[in-house]
Amino acid sequence: MNPIELKIIPHQTQDGLAYQLLRLRIATQDGIITPEDLQGLKLPQNVQFSQGIVIEGRGSIWLYGYLVHECHPAAWVGCYDPRLEGAVVVATHKHEVSVGQVLKLSLPSD
């Protein structure tokens, strides 16, 4: 079992834009992961790349870098920032959102 757990949750922004929340959780007792933990880490099989993906959860910058790369086929990718109460779009293939745009959203519960 990988110490990094990934879960996809269908959701929408406050403006009604449908997206998928990619929730990450570190499942080690001490909350520490190593770069080797990326080996074998895969996105959940139910990812719909036709929609955007927002990555959310506590993780290292290199984990976020890996996840943004893996989510590249998606319509767009954003990273949740609780200080902004939204997701910052970091990559896009669609004209409906632009890089640097903050999509306001409330996080869904598990």
Q: Care to describe what's here?
A:
This protein has 110 residues and is mostly beta strands. Helices cover 9% and strands 35% of the residues. It has a six-stranded mixed beta sheet with strand order 1-2-3-4-5-6, covered by helices on one side. Helix 1 (61-70) links the parallel strand 3 and strand 4 (76-81). The longest helix has 10 residues, at 61-70. It is globular and about 40 Å long.
Structural descriptors:
110 residues, mainly beta, six-stranded mixed β-sheet, 1 helix, 6 strands
Helix fraction bin? under 10%
E-strand count: 6
* Through-space gap between termini: 20 Å
What integer is the average pLDDT? 96
Write a compact overview of the structure shown.
With 110 residues, this protein is mainly β.
Write the layout of secondary structure elements.
Layout (H helix, E strand, L loop, with lengths): L3 E9 L5 E9 L25 E5 L4 H10 L5 E6 L4 E7 L9 E3 L6
Parallel strand pairs: 2-3, 3-4
Antiparallel strand pairs: 1-2, 4-5, 5-6
